[in-house]
Amino acid sequence: ARSLSLFISYFQTGSCLVVKTEGGLEEELWPQEYPACGGHRQSPIDLQQNQVRFNPALRALNLTGYQEDRLGQFPMINNGHTVQISLPPTMRMTAPDGTEYVAKQMHYHWGGASSEVSGSEHTVDGIRRVIEIHIVHYNAKYESYDIAKEVSDGLAVLAAFVEIQEYAENTYYTNFINHLANVRYTGQITTLRGLDILDMLPRDLQHYYSYEGSLTTPPCTENVHWFVLADSVKLSRSQVWKLENSLLNYQNETLHNDYRRTQPLHHRVVEANFRSFPNQRE
Ligand SMILES: [Zn+2]
């Protein structure tokens, strides 16, 4: 019962990632407790090039305040499932349809169970990427995340992949990665100062996939507008290794492979405002 309550309290904080052992609820059993997890617009999905609808009318996302809090303080927690950074409500994202969203938190999904295992949630043509970043936002027309997470047009997640660039240390990640040691144990909190979220994202913010999906953890609410960036963040192998091996879960085991399996597309259409894959774009 203890682990089940941990499980539930975790999901009430609004993150979206997979839990393999908590409360004994394996992914396949989620729908029994949370019917939405068995729904028809679930996330993550496999982004298939030959299925994506090219829509040049999708304008670039407008990100404001992502850089203006350089002097601000950002609480960062090991919640037993990922490292999560709280974001100030001055960070906003405007979707191409004009909807404004308020940033709530960002977290990471990684692999690391063996040196060959990648840990992104979305895959591209069946290929799992090394790491996936999620920045969770809620619709600005609602008073709070807690209200927005219950309604059909409540949430939007900006997602980005990480790729390994062998020996090229990404200095925009130094501050964040250095602080992982302070949150080794579940429940530990530290404070990041002077974080520039824009610098922690891919350089190209213009091109993205877009589709209607869900939270990737229970309760799997089907109210998330997903924006998955085509470009990726580059980290050195050593930086990726540190993210994969710094945190411990509730059982004091190293936190690995915190991703949910890809879900069927069903009737949905994925749109993109670029024609080819980022790898081939150059
Ligand atoms: Zn997530």
TrEMBL record:
SUPFAM superfamilies: Carbonic anhydrase. It is found in: Secreted. Its cofactor is Zn(2+). It catalyses: hydrogencarbonate + H(+) = CO2 + H2O. It is an enzyme of class 4 (lyase). GO terms for cellular component: extracellular space. Pfam families: Carb_anhydrase. It comes from the Eukaryota. One of its GO terms (biological process) is detection of chemical stimulus involved in sensory perception of bitter taste. PANTHER family: CARBONIC ANHYDRASE, CARBONIC ANHYDRASE 6. This is Carbonic anhydrase 6. The gene is CA6.
